[in-house]
Fold this sequence. Notes:
With 122 residues, the chain is mostly beta strands. Helices cover 0% and strands 50% of the residues. It has strands at 3-7, 10-13, 18-25, 35-41, 48-53, 60-62, 70-75, 80-85, 94-101, 111-112, 116-121. The strands form 2 sheets. Strands 2, 4, 5, 6, 9, 10 and 11 form a 7-stranded mixed β-sheet that branches. Strands 1-3-8-7 form a 4-stranded antiparallel β-sheet, with no helix packed on it. The mean pLDDT is 95.
Amino acid sequence: QVQPVESGGGLVQAGGSLRLSCTGSGRTSGISSYAMGWFRQAPGQDREFVAAISWSGGSTDYADSVKGRFTISRDNVKNTVYLQMNNLEPEDTAVYYCAATVHFRRDNYDYWGQGTQVTVSS
Length: 122
């Protein structure tokens, strides 16, 4: 079992950048043995997939809405997954969640963080 913990959210102007981080705590090896994903939920909307990375970092997947602007990466030595967000748009405003799962995929994640707020002003 692992508990993801997000950090790095904040307020940024449109066109700016932010980097979110997600570390894992728990009794096992942290997040290094899990595929990891980022999701987001804007007010009044369903939670949506943003990006995923396999446990090794060899495979990544992105939602069309962020492809070319966001980059997911991981450092298993540091037990951390990152989401680099560039050229942010007001539509990216949401609570961003980090999640862990055994298999690399876009849904059915098992362990979720509490979320970090990202606000993009126009």
